[in-house]
Sequence to fold (399 residues):
Amino acid sequence: MAGFKTLDDLGDVTGKVALVRVDLNLPMKDGSATDVTRVEAAKPTILELSEKGAKVILLAHFGRPKGARSSVLSTSMVQGDVERVLGKEIMFIPEVAGPVAAQAIGILSAGDIGLMDNVRFWPGEEANDAEFAKAIAANADFYVNDAFSAAHRAHATTEGLAHVLPAYAGRAMEKELKALDAALGTPQPPVAAVVGGAKVSTKLAVLENLVGKVQHLIIGGGMANTFLAAKGVDVGKSLCEHDLTDTANAIMARADESGCTVHLPYDVVVAKEFAANPPSLRTCNVHEVAADEMILDVGPLATEALGDVLKTCATLVWNGPMGAFETPPFDAATVALARMAAALTQEGSLISVAGGGDTVAALAHAGVTDDVTYISTAGGAFLEWMEGKELPGVAALSK
Fold:
């Protein structure tokens, strides 16, 4: 990962105008946010710039207005939530460029914070229109990107502005990039990757990238069934993509060539129906799954063995649960492995980086959110990074 400038590289910013791209795409119910994690993430950057005397102008998208104004998708909907988290009043600015924006910024004093309207109200945002980026930049002195979750999009406010203003990574972006670099950029070997989830098809590019980069690939969730089927195991009526068994075999062959061990469960938890604590619940060897049974979690022996694998590793990257963790007792393997990873991280022998919606929920369910090295809340951006793709918003910062 090429070098990028951070807030530490800023000189005196008193009275200077900072355009700060943040993620305020909050889940809403009855007009207020149900989760302000994304605002909390941006808070250190916003307050640091404000305390240093900059005029802080927040840029964000909210929903998918498709280049047209919509009253229910205005960022004014989240203004109250942002003010609560920051503990400061902010000024709402209904434009992103032009005389109205210039006048509003002129009214602000050093250290004040403004929130511009939804950048996606203008077609130039998603088109990454250079003229649109220049128009926004005309009222500012420098640009800070603190929205890693939008870094996989090449839009005017995530990528375009970095070409027309001095560009810096905000504190949340800086933390994310350092964590990701430690996990897959320049990691301490041996590296283990846990990849779970329902389908191989959604993680194909991830698996193909990882087998060339990690020493241990641990496959869980429904996708493990496809790999087991590829090895000739009868998986009964388990969730399985039988049309992808050739692909699974090709991935295992590539892993062999590059010295990566693929770990699949050898004992599993099965049931005849998918429900909480079903009467038909049992644990068996993978070769003993009956035709009317489905695999719903990794068994205790395999889970313990995977814990032993983690003990030999220096780095772990995790995306996706080991089983159907939302329904007990099919959360057992995910919880056990998460707690093992957390314990190893706490004792200092493992750097653990996890990401993706299901993964964040699974680690919270296991009670280890604060005990792993880093959790990325970015969905699409984290997956594309695991696929080995260059993220436009990140690349623009390091130019």
About this structure: The first strand starts at residue 17 and ends at 21. The chain is about 35% helix and 15% strand. The chain has two domains: 7-171, 187-386. The two ends are 11 Å apart (CA to CA).
